[in-house]
Amino acid sequence: MNNPECIIIQTFITNIKKLIMAKTSNTKKTTSKKSANSKSNGRMGAGANDSMLQDFFVDELKDIYWAEKHLVKTLPKMMKAATSPELKAAFQDHVEVTKTHVTRLEQVFEAMGKKAQAKKCEAMEGITKEGESIIEDTEDGTATRDVGLILAAQKVEHYEISTYGGLHQLAITLGHDAVADLLEQTLAEEKEADSLLTEIAENNVNYEAAGEEEQK
Ligand SMILES: [Fe+2]
Ligand SMILES: [Fe+2]
Known about the structure:
With about 220 residues, the protein is mainly α. The protein has helices at about 5-40, 50-80, 85-110, 120-135, 145-175, 175-215. The radius of gyration is 22 Å and the shape is elongated. One fe (ii) ion (FE2) binds near residues 157, 160 and 193.
């Protein structure tokens, strides 16, 4: 793999990637200039601080802020209910990551000159309730319960991924670049958590649970 031809090809590919990235960043700069110009034409753009979209954006931030704070309380219950050491560790790790998400959202509110406020997120409450009923309906110490916990946890992650994905785009539209960066960091961590859960399910837990079914 490290022969001279391979190195030349790899260098060529890296240079092409750099060229594409440079082009993309130029396009982004042009787009944000256009967006700033469109403001003077009375259209939505950077700094539209009193628009309906801005209000909607802040409202959605309150919603995910409540959801993250709620998860700080509910994820430890899922961690305790899990049997697989990998799954327990994944939950434990994500409790810490989720605390960072709460802090990051507080930074987002601050960056926007708003007070950090939580507004009850009915969707997240429903998803976490489903997780609790999975714990009630399955036996302690079984891989079947772990499968259920992974399923519930992935529903949580997918809700967060879609929320942060949408909010990140809105932050760009509204011209809140620093906020967009913060939301993008959290989005990446939610995606990471989701992939880890898939890995745990596919590598171990699902097969163990299938074995449990066969014993019945
Ligand atoms: Fe989160
Ligand atoms: Fe998460």
